[in-house]
Amino acid sequence: MHSRENPCCCSFDECKLTTEWLLSRTRHRPKIAVVCGSGLSLLAESVSNKQVFHYEDIPSFPVSTVPGHDGRLVFGYVKDKSCVFMQGRFHLYEGYSLCQVTFPVRVFKLMGVETIIVTNASGGLCQDFKVGDIMVIKDHINLPGFAGQHPLCGPNDERFGIRFPCMSDAYNKVLRKLALDISMELGYSNFVREGVYCMVSGPNFETIAEARMLHVLGSDSVGMSTVPEVTVAKHCGLHVLGLSLITNKVSLDYSREEKVNHEEVLQISKMRAEMLQKVLTTFIAHSHQVEGINSN
Ligand SMILES: O=P(O)(O)O[C@@H]1C[C@H](O)[C@@H](CO)O1
Asked: What is the pTM of this model?
């Protein structure tokens, strides 16, 4: 049975079947996976020796339903590093269970991936942030998780990870530093920041009262993804880097007239994707400098 029909069938065996299906069809053996956020499919365009699978052709993979999420798995090389890119991710608000949302992460783990780079578009809550800034994610707030919408709820399969994983170091410190150092070398330090990402379920954008609450709670940006993928990645022992593109300023003020919409999010993502791609490809090229990350 496929997870499109059954929201709760992302078992170890099903992950393994999908893994074997992919490994038997690709010569690539990626060590790095990249999840492209809204409007950020361009991140995968510069890979060499490309091999592409459409999500609808991959057993048990959900399909993309959101504009700006192409629904393609792209294998290839960035410099000499074997990578796999998700051009499009899955969200809770699409009606997928969190186990479907995170299914690809577990498949990557079983394929031999060691590091995952998760990107997204988010709204800036920190008053210093500007539209177009890139935020290296330092930490997150799992708001749906507080309410029991958590990808690790349910029986724990020890083959993936332990029952009570530690999340205090979900975003690898060494990888964060490398991303910040690279940004500085590229001359991007004026618009590359570090901060805390807060996940809400969506699909509506925040009310002003909600935005104020998230700000008071310590969130620098807010979005509708990433946290389930990162939680599952950390649970199964992957190294994580998170990069968030600030596509809009979230209003904390009742007198502000601007209204956010998805088209604006996509427009800013597409405008800044090239910058993010530069950070990403330079990061991947230098990732051998970091202990625990293989050189190809
Ligand atoms: O997949 P991400 O988190 O980049 O997508 C963001 C959050 C919503 O899906 C959408 C809102 O515009 O963009």
From this structure: 0.94
